Amino acid sequence: MGARLSLATWAPLGFPTLPLANGLHMPVLGLGTSHQGGYSHDAVVYALQKCGIRHIDTAKRYGCELLLQKAIKESDVKEDLWITTKLWHSDYGYENTKQACLDSCKRLGVHYLDLYLVHWPDAQVPGKSNRKVRAETWRAREDLYEKGICRSIGVSNFLINHLEQLKEDCKITPHVNQVEYHPFQRPQELVDYCRSRNIVFEGYCPLAKGEALTHPNIIQLAHKYSKTPAQICIRWSIQNGIVTIPKSTKIERIRENCEVFDFILAEDDVAIINGMDEGRHVSWDPSSIV
């Protein structure tokens, strides 16, 4: 039933991890941020200090890398912190990618990134194909990885055809693919493909921007397990072997979202939620990008 969680844990609350192809272990639960009402200084500090969160997901596009540096310093969490950020298409290309990475490190106040993702498969560079720009961008990441500036490298919103092109054009397989994943959008063919190539699958929008929380199946399971609908969705995602990054700016919601390791959904109940998939996006749809 999905990828097996590592026996390794992430202090202080002992969050499970998933192993990457390069031997690193990535916390299976993280805190997502965003540029649309998706950042709160107090919430990040609380998540780090009180909830045991050690995995923060951000992006240049969100505009909060510098703010995160301040929150991390205030939290006084200095060890075992996993920071993911993403490269926006305005910085695609070989030289631009290398400089953008260094700029993100500076804003975040770190010497290296734990995971650096290509945010979106559409390069939007006049006169060049998406494939060519993605390959140039990825080769810069390979260099950054080999120099240790990025401990792992990956992509976001990439489909099988995009990953196949990278396979043909480049040397290093992405360590992670971060894609929309929730009860209404469970791209199992893509998940299976990633696992066949030892690419860890990471899911964003695990609550479908709140739309999953009012579905009768989710509400019924929440009553059955004496949990909240959000906890049911997050637990389901994690049990399917997906690194999961719920987003919240509310302290009580962050605490709630972290309390998902004290129960296990029965296989029949996982199957019920699996059956809710209808291929519906609540975020970006990359299917039209070549």
What's this entry about, in short?
The chain contains 10 helices and 11 strands. With 290 residues, it is of the alpha/beta class.
Report on this model:
By secondary structure, the protein is an alpha/beta fold. The chain is 38% helix and 14% strand. It contains 10 helices and 11 strands. It has an 8-stranded parallel sheet. Strands 1-2-3 form a 3-stranded antiparallel sheet, with no helix packed on it. Strand 5, helix 2 and strand 6 form a beta-alpha-beta unit. It is globular. About 3% of the residues have low confidence.
List keywords for this structure.
290 residues, alpha/beta, three-stranded antiparallel β-sheet
**What is the helix/strand order?**
EEEEHEHEHEHEHEHEHHEHH
Biggest sheet overview: 8 strands, parallel
Q: Regarding quaternary structure, how should these chains be classified?
A: single chain
Using the alpha-carbon principal axes, give the shape.
Answer: globular
Helix content: 25-40%
User: C-alpha Rg, in Å?
Assistant: 18 Å
Give the class from helix and strand content and strand pairing: alpha/beta
How many H/I helices? 10
The overall strand count is: 11
Order the strands across the largest sheet as they lie in space: 4-5-6-7-8-9-10-11
Strand portion: 5-15%
